[in-house]
């Protein structure tokens, strides 16, 4: 089922892992996750201890990742420790704001592929270490801007749903910020989505005020919030 285009996508990672990204999913009946070398994101079908116990079984001992789901805090689950939470605004690019490709006086935009995986990881680790991994490129299309041959800014796609693509991995090296690279790349991604008849959406941490302001200037509107809960598989102590 295609999610509503003007309302919150309540279980966005589950929707992605059961549709467009099903081929990447490591699954049980109530839990799904991406491979560790793709992205540290998981989902549960329902917010229950049973579903979380199934998810625990999909993690390696000591491994941690993020459960993406709207709503209240998840219930407790023996052997699955909650480490932290991030609330991220879910923002939709409205159909009325469709982007079209246009001439730009800015630097050239390059398509990034598997051969660029190492430099994509290195760049994104400056802003959000550990989220972009060596096979994240499998999740969608990525684009970058170079300076002196070095990748200094990028943007692309992450969660993929029927008719919808998440704009993600928006990152510019600190030494090259303030030049409009991020906005140029986001508009490029939006134009590619528009040409393909796709709706664009994104997530941004509720405390990242500068990024929120940029996305709002570009036309994105808030539709809800996703709770990213970081969990770790721990050992279960034997009971006497």
Written description of the protein model:
The chain is an alpha+beta fold and 240 residues long. The protein folds into 2 domains: 12-87 and 226-233, Aminopeptidase (3-Layer(aba) Sandwich), CATH 3.40.630; 91-224, 3-Layer(aba) Sandwich (Aminopeptidase). Helix content is 21%, strand content 33%. The chain has 5 helices and 11 strands; from the N terminus they run H-E-E-E-H-E-E-E-H-E-E-E-H-E-H-E. It has helices at residues 12-17, 49-56, 117-127, 181-195, 209-218; strands at residues 26-27, 31-33, 41-44, 64-69, 80-93, 110-112, 142-147, 150-161, 164-172, 199-205, 221-233. The protein has an 11-stranded mixed beta sheet, with helices on both faces. The longest helix is centred in the C-terminal third of the chain and has 15 residues, at 181-195. The chain is globular. The relative contact order is 0.22. The mean pLDDT is 93.
Give keywords.
240 residues, alpha+beta, Aminopeptidase, 5 helices, 11 strands, 21% helix
Order of helices and strands: HEEEHEEEHEEEHEHE
Shape: globular
Based on the coordinates given, report the CATH architecture of the largest domain. Answer: 3-Layer(aba) Sandwich
CATH class of the largest domain: Alpha Beta
């Amino acid at each position: 089922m295609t999610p509503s285009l003007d309302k919150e996508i309540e279980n966005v990672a589950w929707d992605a892992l059961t549709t467009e990204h099903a081929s990447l999913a490591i699954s049980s009946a109530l839990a799904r996750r991406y491979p560790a070398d793709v992205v540290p994101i998981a989902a549960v079908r329902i917010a229950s201890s049973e579903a979380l116990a199934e998810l625990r079984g999909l993690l390696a001992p000591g491994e941690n990742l993020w459960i993406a789901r709207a709503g209240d805090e998840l219930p407790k689950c023996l052997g699955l420790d909650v480490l932290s939470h991030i609330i991220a605004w879910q923002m939709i690019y409205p159909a009325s704001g469709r982007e079209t490709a246009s001439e730009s006086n800015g630097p050239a935009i390059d398509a990034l592929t598997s051969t660029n995986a190492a430099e994509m990881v290195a760049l994104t680790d400056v802003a959000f270490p550990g989220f972009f991994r060596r096979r994240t490129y499998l999740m969608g299309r990525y684009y970058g801007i170079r300076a002196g041959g070095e990748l200094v800014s990028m943007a692309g796609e992450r969660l993929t749903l029927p008719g919808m693509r998440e704009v993600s991995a928006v990152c510019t090296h600190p030494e090259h910020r303030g030049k409009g690279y991020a906005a140029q790349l986001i508009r490029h991604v939006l134009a590619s989505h528009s040409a393909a008849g796709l709706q664009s959406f994104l997530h941004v941490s509720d405390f990242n005020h500068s990024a929120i302001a940029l996305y709002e200037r570009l036309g994105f509107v808030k539709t809800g919030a996703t709770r990213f809960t970081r969990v770790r598989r721990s050992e279960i102590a034997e009971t006497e």
